[in-house]
What does this fold into?
Amino acid sequence: MCTNITPFLNGARKYSAEGNTIFSWLLLALCIAILMAFIGLIPLGRWQDEWIVFPALLENGARQFFNHLLHWSPRPLSESLIVLYFLLVNFFQRPLIGSALFITWLTLAITLFLPPLIIDHDRVHASKILIERLLLSSSLFCILLLGPFAYELFYWPMAAFAYIPMLSALFFLFWLFITGNHTSRRGKYTWTIAMVIAATSLEIGALFVVIFFSMICCARLVSRYCKALASGTDQITLAHWIFPLG
It folds into this structure.
């Protein structure tokens, strides 16, 4: 006798989906607990190079800034943020370590958690997609916190002003591309700005931008070459290779 197992399979699928959702919520709660624990360590942040750089800025002013920018640290954005931090420290006559670190933490959190909330997703599976994206964002944050360079990233103001803008720009870029919103006109302007922020914050960010744009140029070259071959024409001019982004 043949038994209809369709109701059983449907029930199993529903139970499996509910189990996965519960497991995702538990993982998300664990990641949030880890984040909160590390946030509680912000008051333990300390100065390092600030003890050398800030007196030099106080004594030499703009000359020290440009000398450091041109000969030691070619990071226009991060160096400008450090100078702004120095001006605030000098004005208030307080180290403002907690405030500086809180701002960097908040910047990274916004670029990690805000895009999943505002980017459109399928209404039918909106809740599931949202949980998955939030879990991905919190997992990335926890990976950084549990890594070997957590102190430099999150508890040393001068280093945070260099690393966090770059990471924030790259994470925002990640969400822009993973959701397919990079192809629109606004998306192209947005990821261009993100690239500029990453490149002017840290040398690693500049290297990433060079590699990224090189890959785009190569992809455009291959695409244009394949289209020319598919159209049956042999007239692949030099312009096809010199201007791949046109």
Summary: Confidence is low (pLDDT under 50) at residues 8-16, 233-246. Residues 6-39 form the longest helix (34 residues). The radius of gyration is 24 Å. Residues 107 and 168 are 7 Å apart (CA to CA).
